# Entry
Amino acid sequence: MNVVAAAIAAIPATFWGVVIGSLFTVIGVALTNASHTRRLRLQHQHEHERDERARDLSMRRDVYLGAFEAIATGMTMVGNFGELDVPFQDLMRAYMGKASAIGKVTIVGRESTIQAVADFEQALTGAFIRLSGRRQVVEGHHRRLRAIAAKLGHAEAERERLTAEIERGDAGDALAALRRSLDHERRRERALRAEEAEVEAVFMPGLMDLIRATMEEVATLDRLLAAVIREVRSELGLAFDEAFYRQLVESSHAKRAAHFEAFVSEVPTAG
# Structure
């Protein structure tokens, strides 16, 4: 034991200084490495979370863009219910081809977003049902008018043919029969024109009321859409001035309604 103590005592003090200094260096390096490793771990976790958020936002954005495209198509369809030249099946087909995109909101959306979309979709379905019944009535009058127009075309052509034959003066014994036929065609033409006026008196106001109804339904949907936009933009971290949007919607629809009523007042057959 005395030998060991003597050996330790014989070691120069400078050696112990080097050893202790080296020990501090090792400890410092170990602490630095540990701190660096912790920073790398935190950085990796942060980058992973950032990438996850980016993927989540990208997925949400894609879903919501598809949903809004379907919503816009549905609102356009509502606005076109008064376009009788567009078959009803074509109106529905355009929307039904995209309607499934709205259902995807339930996969990625918050509960408040899902509720806002559900409220809008329910109102959109209600608009379809209400306008479908009104359009069916107007379409019936429209088909009747087209049928009368076709009959009038035939009657006018026959009247002109009979008139030409009588004016040539070569009918002989058949002249009396031609004149009776001409009188018949004239009476038929007058009756068809009277029927046409009667149907138009119902058709035109009905069509104007249908168009008014489409405008009112679109205005209602626009108001409900404000909540959908608010929730979606909130999820995507985007600002939204809902009060400004609602004011813009009300102003836009008021102007549109005024323009339409001005147009109606200038259509003689609308009243």
